[in-house]
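Researcher: Here's a chain I'd like modeled. Treat it as a single chain, no partners, no ligands.
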Amino acid sequence: MTTRKRLALAAAIATVGVPAGAAPASAEEKLLTLYSPRIDSLPYVHDTHNVTLRANDQEAPGKPGYVLGFKEMSLVDSKRPNAKPLPVSKMMVHHLLYFAPGRVDQLPGSCWYGAGFISGRGEEHPRGTVLRNSSRAFRDRYGINNRLADGSAPDWRLTAMVMNHYKRPKSFYIRARVWYTTDETRTSVSPVVIGDCSQLVNGMAYDVPGGGKRGSNHVNSSDWVAPFNGRLLMASSHQHGGGKYQTLESRTCGRRLFKAPVYHGMPDHPYNTIRPILHEPGPIGTGAYATLTGIPISQGEVLRRTAVHDNHNLHIAAMGFWATWFVKDDSIRRCGRLPNDITEINRPRRFDRTPNYDLKVPQLARPRGAFTAFDGNPLEVGDDFFRPGKVTARVGETVTWRFGGLRPHSVSVANGPRGFSSVYWGRTSGTYSYTPRVKGTYRLVCLVHPTTMAQTLEVK
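Model: Modeled as a single isolated chain. Structure tokens:
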């Protein structure tokens, strides 16, 4: 996998963590506390940081072994053992993703195959504890093999997309508490991401255009064909952007495996009260499930993923995919009996089932100058500007933007008659085009720099 592909992969939308336990460690497992190098962030940005973590027991495990779970993934402003996590009202995590490139025992079939994905934290884990604790029996039996083919421990890669709501530049570290063992008795499990892999070039994101009747749905689905015989031990739904629920069904066996709800925050949750609004509020929980026994999945079995979103309002850079744990097992039979020990592991204590899908994300910067008619030449996007600030175009006329500058930027609809967005984590070169089919005022922003970059597109 090329460096460019790894970076695109690392910007994917955040996914879930490995089930973890909080019981006291036995002699054969340790709770490692690991820190990233210092990360510097400008105020009011929504940016992505790609960091190398060295295998030195300070940034990543220094000895080969098995990752048994993540107890914590948090942002802190120092490496003091008792440092409290930074509040989500100031530093909000969009996603943290951990990879061990080159590690062994990666099963095929994942949208992120070959990247060495280990675990992560998304918006749906606002407390930083990733998933609720699984049983100790899970950790005693299973683990992710953290070693290279030569037997050494790999360096890790960390991708962090964070929204800084401080009014000043902020430096921070990412602290991970990892259950780890060098014991060789674990059964090796492999994280597998099940989604529409063609969306990988945009970080697994897609746009919900909106404009439907109140209560209408936008459905995004894809099929996954199992390339091995195995048991499905864990499945965590990652869904945001007006998400309602996501299902995973076996078309081969004619049965539903999971219907994962999306849990939204109560009106007083920081996700709903934080200002300025840099990003549509994400969920505070999504359905996630674990089974010690495992669900039998046979080679060639077709699983269908279906993500259902609100389509009354627009939702740009939405996501819907499943992060799963599989263990290879050639003894299973096709459409074998479902286990009776499936447990939900990410249900928050308080949540809202009827969120305000009609929230209008504001255009935080005000474009200046008079409206200019689009003449067919690409509009300029550079460091801290759209040029011109106000543009008129006709329905059915393709509008193109050209990126330049040293920092990544996006072209994204904050609010308007329909939603669209270029690559949400930004780009520094190339072009992006969109053909509007609906009249109205499209208020555009750069998702990375929403407080300083904006453009208004009037479609007639």
